[in-house]
Amino acid sequence: MMLSHRVGRACHVLVLVLCLSAAEDFDWSANNHDSFYYGTFPNGFSWGAGSSAYQTEGAWDKDGKGLSIWDVFTHKKGKTFLNDTGDSSCEGYYRIKDDISLMKELNLNHYRFSISWPRIMPTGIRSDHVNEKGVKYYNALINELLEHNITPIVTLYHWDLPQVLQEKYGGWQNISMINYFNDFANLCFERYGDRVKHWITFNNPWSVAVEGYETGEHAPGLKLRGTGAYRAAHHIIKAHAKVWHTYDTQWRKKQKGMVGISLSGDWGEPVDISNQKDIEAAERYVQFYIGWFATPIFHGDYPQVMKDFIGVGHFTTRYITQKSFPFNRGSTYFSDRDVAELVDPRWPDPGSEWLYSVPWGFRRLLNFIKTQYGNPMIFITENGVSEKMLCTELCDDWRIQYYKDYINEMLKAIRDGVNVKGYTAWSLLDKFEWDEGYSERFGLYYVDFRNKNKPRYPKASVQFYKRIIRFNGFPNQREVEIWKRKATETCSTSNQLLAADPLTSHMEMVTEVVVPTVCTLCILISAVVLMFLLRKRN
C-alpha cells in the first residue's frame, strides 16, 4: 500500500507519546531527515560484518553434523524460491582462511557468526553425543580470527534447531527446549569461552516465533495461528534468561565475558501525528516487534546486572495506522496488533520486497531503545540491504548509499546520547536467504553460486565500508565523495575479473545468458534480442 504525497508530508514528525514525554534530549518533532552529519565515532568503536551458520557454511551432512529444521524444510518442494537449499551455500565450512582474508581486507574489528547446534550436538541432546569434528571446526574459526586480531561475536541460535528436537518435542512449542538449549550453550561456554567474550543467545527471536510457528514461512513451517508465536516466544525468553544465569554463575568470573540477545526491529511512524489512534497503532507496532522481547528483559523481574547488552538488527521503517481487524476472523499475532503498514513511494527499494531504505527511522529506533530501556549498551548486530537482479552487478551504488545514510543516522544517535558500541554490516558474503533462496543478495562480497568453488568478488561497497572503518566515520564532505568515486572505479575492475571467469564455471544454467554475467552486458544482449524480435514482427 502506498501513501499519497499529502500524507507523506504529514509524517515527518514524531511517533510515540511515551517518547515525546520521556526523551528530553531528542527532538522528535525535528524535520531533518535529509541532513548529513560529518564527524567520527568514539574511540574504540567496533566495526564488523556478520553471517550465520546455515546461510554460509554448507557441508550440511558432513563430518557427523545432524539434521537441522532448515535442512528438512528446504528439502521439501515449494518451501523456498526455486527450491533452493543451504546444502552447499558459500562452502564456508571449507573456506575459513579465505574468508578471514576478506575480513582483513576490510580491516574489521569483529566478526559475528553463529554456531550450528546440530553440527556439535547432532540430536540437540548433549547426553546423546557431542560431535568433536564440529567442535574442532569452530575452534579453528575462532583461533584464526584471533590470530588476525578480529574479535569473535558468537550467536548461539540463528534458527537452525536440531530436527530431532522438533520431531520429538515440537521444538520451541515445548518448554523442554529451555534445558536443552542451556546444555548446548553450556558446552559452547566450556569449549570456547576462554577465547569468546561476546555471546548472543538468540538472533531475531521474532522471526523464529512468528515465521516459524505462526505463518509457516520459515522452518519448521508450522501455522499455529493465535498460539504458536506466543508460546515459542515465551520459551525463547525463558531460555535466554536461563543461559544468562548459567554463564553468570558458572563462567563469568573465570571468562569475564558478556551475554546478550539480538532483537530485530523495524521503526513505526504514525501516518497522522494528530490522530491518537495512529499514534497508539505505531506504539503497538514497535512493542509487538522489539518490545515483545526487550520489555521482559529490561522491565521484568530480571536483575540490573543481567542486562549485559542488547544486540539490535534493523533494516527498514513503516508508516503505521489503525487497521481494525474484524472480530469474527479469529485471533492471530497480526490481528492482535491491529495495524496497517504503509510505505512512501519515494523510498528506495532495490531488493527485498519488505526492505525500503528509510535511514531516519534507524535513529528514532535507537533513541526509543535508549528511552524505554535505560540506555543499555547496544551492538548493531545486523544492518544492510539486498539486491534482487538476474545479472551480476558489483557496482552496488545503492548499497553504498544505504550504508552511508544508515551509519550516519547511527552516528547522530550516538550524539543524542545513545550507547552504541559497535556496528555489524549484514552481511560479509552473499548467502542463502531463507525462503528467498539465492534470489536476494546482502553481501559486501559477491559469491558465484553456480561455480562449484564458490569464488568471492568484492563489490564497490567493500571499498566504501573499508574507508568508513579506516576513518572511524565521515571526516568531511570532500573525503566522502572521493571514497564513493574510488569505490566505483575499483568495482569496474572487479566486473572484468568476474567476466573473465572460465566459461565452464557458468554452464550449469541454460535458461539465461550467463557469460559473462555482468549487468551491462545482460542489458545490451536483451536490447539486441528485443530489436530483432520487433524487426521480425514488422
UniProtKB/TrEMBL annotation:
What Pfam families does this protein map onto? Answer: Glyco_hydro_1 (PF00232)
- Hey, what's the signal peptide range on this chain? 1-23
Any GO molecular function: hydrolase activity, hydrolyzing O-glycosyl compounds
Q: Which Gene3D superfamilies match?
A: Glycosidases
GO BP: any one term: carbohydrate metabolic process
TM helices/strands, residue ranges:
513-534
Catalytic residues as annotated in Swiss-Prot or TrEMBL:
E382
Q: Subunit structure of this entry?
A: Homodimer.
Please state what the protein is called. Lactase isoform X1
What high-level taxonomic lineage is stated for the organism? Eukaryota, Metazoa, Chordata, Craniata, Vertebrata
